Structures are given as C-alpha cells and as structure tokens.
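Self-study notes.
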Amino acid sequence: MPQMRSYKAGSIIYFRQESDEKADNLDNVFVLQDGKVSLSSLTLDTQEEVKEDLLKGEFFGVKSALGKSPREETAMVMADAQILLFSIKEFEALCLKNPRIVLQMLKVFSGQLRRIHKTLHHLLGESHNVDNAVNLLKTAEFYHKSARLGHAIYAYEAFLKSYESHNLNERARDLLKKAQQGDPYPGTLDALSSSNTFAAAGTGEGNNAMADSESAEQQNSEAEVLSSDISSSLINKNYDEAIELAEKLIGMADQLSESEQHLIDHAAFDKMRSFKMKGDIDQFKSLYKSFLKNYGHNQKLIAKAMLEMAELHKKEKKFEDALSLVRAVLKLNTDDSDKRNANNLLRDLESKVK
C-alpha cells in the first residue's frame, strides 16, 4: 500500500545527482497531496538553476524511479507537506488500472523533450525530431504485454489515428490485429527505441517533418494529446469526459494543419459513439445522421459508424434495417477487423430473419 509521509518546510525529499553518480534512493514515486514542494534543476545550456513549484496531486520522481537513472532535480519542501509514496510495483499497478495517468505523463514528458530538442538545436545547430509517437506505441505494447487487451487496443488505435504516416504503422496495425483477436504479445519483436524515428510518407523530409513555427508545433501536440485523452476516457468509460474532450478537439479544426485534420474525423466519431455508450440514443441517432453527411470522405469511419447503428438496430430488433447497413459496410473500403465484425454480424442477422 502507498505510504503517506509528512515533511517539514526546509527539508529535502531527494537531491539532484550528477550523471556519473551512482543512482540511489530510487525506490519511490512521489505525489504531492498537500503543502508546497519545489523542484530545482539546472538548464542544459547555461547550467543556471531553475525552480518549478508542483501542483497538488502532481507526480514527481517518476523518470528516475522507472529508469533507474540519477535524479535530475532536487525536491525541496517549501511549506509543510503531505507526500504519498508509491513503490515502483505499486505505481505500475496504478498505471495499469488508470491508463489516463500514463497518457498525462506522456504529455508532460513530450513537452520536456521538445524543450530539450530546442536547446540542443540551438547549441549544436542540428535538426533532430524527438519522436513522441514511439512513447505512445510503447504504452500500447506495455498494456499488450500485461494482457490488458482493451487498454492495448485503444492505445494502438490512438497511435494509428494520431500518426497516420509513421514508419511504425505496420507494426502497430499487426499488433492491433493480434490484440483484437485475443492473441498474446509476440515475444520475437525487437524492442522499440528512440532510433525508431518519424518518417513522413511520400514527403522525403524524414526527421525534418516538423511544424515550421513553435505555435504550430504546440497546437499539433495539443491535438494529439487530446486525441489520446479521448481514447483513455473511453477505456475508463468516462463518456461525458470523452464528449467534452472531443468537442474541444473539434473546435480546434480551423487551427490545425491539413495533416492533422484526420483527428477531427475521429473526434466526431468518438463523440457520437460516446452518446450511444452512455445510453443517450436520441442524441446518438442525431449525430449519426450528421456524421454520415459531414464525414463521407472517410470511408473507414463511416463503416464503423454504420456498424454502431447496425448493432443498435439489432438490439431494437430491426433486423432488416441492420442487414441493410451491414451489407453496405461490406462494400466499403474498411479495416479487416471491421469486415470481420460485419461478416459475423451478417451471419447472426441472417439467422434471425429466416
């Protein structure tokens, strides 16, 4: 069980360690429950000290604990504080039960990586894209290895819809198919590493396929994080939250680049599906009609929407209506998994109308 500890103002929870120091005191991940804690670290370029005050409920000490690497900052108690301590095993178990925690930490880490990238770019005059997509795929594979197939499927799908041109898409699609079939994670795959970098399909730009401006980069990153958060909310059956996040992402449509517009399509689909999952059938049917009208360019999502409606018709015992939709789905260019689901539903419906 996690332990609650009290720290007096002025005390040190842990000290920053040099890169060549032996990493110790790495047994815990910390959460600020009450009080005030400040993290003090050195900038990469000028070695100046910078301080960051933590918010209540915020995790710290995560990267060093999980990576068994030296602490990058000093954690100092500025006002009497209550700190919750997790062992590494307890923290990993918490992440398995609450995948949203993992996605939120990825959001923080990706922001830190972008800042490091910019500093190195300035110091070395080099262009290098830190590929945060790899971290999302690692999350999906972590759940797959842990036999949390529902979580893995949503994380794989979040990767594929957020990074449609990534050079790891084939790997993600193969693993998604295995997870959907209930197959275990294959032990013969090579581990992902930071060398699995982004290559934009058909552009020839490779690792330089980044937004030209900092504001565009931040906007795109926010859209990707929102898309992942929607998937996490659906995993946890937080349908109201998924709807709110989807509406926020849809509202960003005019601000996104053309390559990011597919996220809007998926957000609209997830919003529609969330209403169905929470039992608001009238709203689902209304959104279904507008979805077919506004997103007809995306045949794969149209097929998914039609299957959702076919399942509803089946539940309402409108078998002929359901059959009509399923047969239409089988004529569309859609995913193998959706074709398989459509064929299974077709056989079931045909047996009911005989």
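Second protein, same conventions, sequence then structure:
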Amino acid sequence: MAKNDVQDPLLQQLVDSPHHSSWKNALTKRKHHRSKTVLKKTWHPEQNYEASLQKPKSIFESKLDYKLVLLVLLAYVGIGALCFFLVRYQIKGDKTNGIIDAIYLCIVTMTTVGYGDLVPDSTMAKFLACIFVFIGMGLVGFLLSKAADNIVENQEILLVKAMHMREKSSPGEILREVETNRAKYKFYTVLVSLLMLIFAGTIFLYEKEGLDLFDAFYCVCATITTLGYGDKSFSTSGGRIFAAFWILISTICLAQFFYSLAELYTERRRKSLVNWVLTRKLTSSDLEAADLDNDDAVSAAEFVVYKLKEMGKISQEDITMVMDSFKVLDVDQSGTLTKDDLLHPRK
C-alpha cells in the first residue's frame, strides 16, 4: 500500500453515502447511552485470555474427522493396490513381491513421484493409473493436506513449550505466544518435521538400500519434490514398505513447508503494514475522514473503524453490510442493541 493512498480520506465514501446518517445517529445515541451507563463488570485480561482465544464457530469451519480421513485413505490404497495387483502381469519393471509392489505403485502414483521402476504396460493398466493419479491428487490436495495442517497446528503449542522449557510460563502465556506468532511457529514445526523426514529417508536408503550417502540424499530430494528421475529408487521389499509410508508423509510435509513459508512472509508483511499504520503521524485530513458524525471529535469506535480500513482489514462494502445488519436488529432505533431488540425482532 502506498503512503499517498493511505493519507487520503479513506472513509470519504462512507461519509458521502446514504448510510452516513445511520452512522451519525447510531454513534450519537450510543455516546448518550454510554454517559448514563454504569460499568458493572471488570475485565481481567490475564484471567480471561484463554477464553478470549475461543472464537465463535463459523459456518466455514468444521472439525476434521481423522477417522474419516484414515478410512478414505485406506479405502483408496486398498482399492488401488487390489487393482494393480490384479494387473501385476501387465506392469513391467523391477519387481519384488506382488502385494508390496501393488501398494508401492499405488502410493507412487498417488503422490505423482513416478520413479519409473514400475510402469503400466497395457491399456488396462495405463487406464487404472490415469484414474488413480487424479483421485490421488485430489485426496492429497483436499483431504490429507488439511489433516496435516491441523496436526501441525496442534503441535505448535508443544514446540513453544519446548522452546521455553527453562522459563516458568503459564498456559495463558503459552497460548498468547502461539496466537501472536502462529505463522512463525507453524513454519518452525513444519521445518523440524521435514528435516527429520529427510534424515530418516537418507539413513534408510544408505543402510537398507545400499546407496552411498550422497546418492541417498539425492534420492530423497528427488522423491519429496516428486521429481522422480528413476535412476535411484526403493528396490527391495522392505524398502518399498518403508516408502509406502515415508513418501506419502514427506511429500505432504514439503508442500506444507512451502505453504507455511509463504504464510510467514505474508504475515510479516501484514505486521509491518499494521505497525506503520499505527505509528505514523495523523494529519488533519485523517481526523476529518475518521469523524463519521461530524462532531469535530473522533471517538474510539470511529478511530478503530478508520484504522481497520486503512490496514485493509475491512472495506466499504463490509461496513455497509454490518450497518444494514445493525439497523435490522435495532428494532427501537435507539442506536444500541438490547435484549428487548432480540426478544422482539422486526418483522
């Protein structure tokens, strides 16, 4: 966002719109109402922070059923392995055990690694490969990646606790730290997991598959990036059993790594913008733009709305929709919402 754009009156459209009178009446009545209201409850940030982190459920948020994810994955691998096993004589390449090879080929197809050590050699086998690669990509992209993302988020608190083991931090402080730097700790969690997977794959290929250390690392990199040259791959039965689990986990983890890296970069840019918006010197044009009720004074509510719009967190359309919703709920048109308004909704 350019500085010149920010310095322009950002709420001018609101002031000039038909909704401005509603804003003005609501704000004026609310100020009058506050002047006659006695604060009955005291807010304790320290005691209520954990409760404040509990956000209302959104229609777009649903709890992921890990059992369902596991069942779908097992169904895909089971059906895919069965199909590839039935056409095993129509598949050419370096074979070990029929069942193990079928599961291995199913996972390699699903993750689009495609070593080339096992390839379809008939119309039927190629048709099955076409079907399972698209279904597998959809499963990885929409279901398994979401499950991995949820697992990573659940591990963030454990990572923060491990980083602050020597410090006496309360659960509320741990939650506050996670919430404040969620993108950073998510990135660290995924990075640690990815490094562990790379190390495990390299050591396994070195010890069990007989590759030298650099070739093992090279094979790992070609695998998790789904490059799959095919010059190095898992060639033993034990190696392919390990690969069936390791390839699936590591490829998803790498995708999560790049996603969290982009998220971290975006979050830092956002925080930089927020810091600039909150610390820059206000001008008279800012006050005029933020003064929605034209009373030559900017209230806290007006200031918050102005700054949120300046940060790009809300838009003119958002403000208009919220005000329309408020007008519908405000049955007595007092400029405030009470229990009576909820008990006697406008028909």
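Instructor comment on the second fold: The two ends are 43 Å apart (CA to CA).
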